[in-house]
Amino acid sequence: MATQTARRTSRTKRAAAPVPDSGLARIIDPGWSWDDKLPLAQAKQIGNTIYVSGQVAFNAQGKLVGKENMKTQTRQVFRNIKAVLRAAGAKMEHVVKINTYITDADKFMDMLEARGDIFGDNPPASTAVVVAGLAFPGLLIEVEAIAVKP
User: Fold this and answer.
1) How many domains does the chain have?
2) What is the DSSP-derived secondary structure letter of residue 142?
3) 104 touches 130 (CB < 8 A)
4) Over the stretch 110-125, which tens digit does the pLDDT of each residue have?
5) Closest CA to 148 of 79, 92, 102, 96
6) Residues whose CB is less than 8 angstroms from the CB of residue 12 and which lie 6 or more positions away in sequence, other chains included
7) 141: CATH
8) Helix (H, G, I), strand (E, B), or coil: what is residue 60?
9) Phi then psi for 82, rounded to 5 degrees?
């Protein structure tokens, strides 16, 4: 257990440093504390390409936003993606691909409407998949993104 705690602390301290084993990838940390105990990076950057981990409808404090509301959760997910990209010096307009996972096919159009408000006339390439469930109770949507900074 002590080793795991030490690793978590180490991960937090080296958040903006290159990953030692690759020398190429940089961990992107938007500064949230709720995820410090999870063995993940919110994003990794290699060159100008940013790979954003699946974002869910948790706010910066780790609280679920929009319980049972697909549009509200979708907006929160994209606020999170925007925050991660900002930490990498990128913007939403740099997103070139997203993978979306939703738990209710009947709410697909609600997700598309909210996503359309975000991307407007410049949508990224995208894939959407209906899944049986996501990692935490109450989540309706999770989105991964790839962005390329100019």
Assistant:
1) 1
2) E
3) yes
4) 999 999 999 999 999 9
5) 96
6) 29, 36
7) 3.30.1330.40
8) coil
9) -60, -40
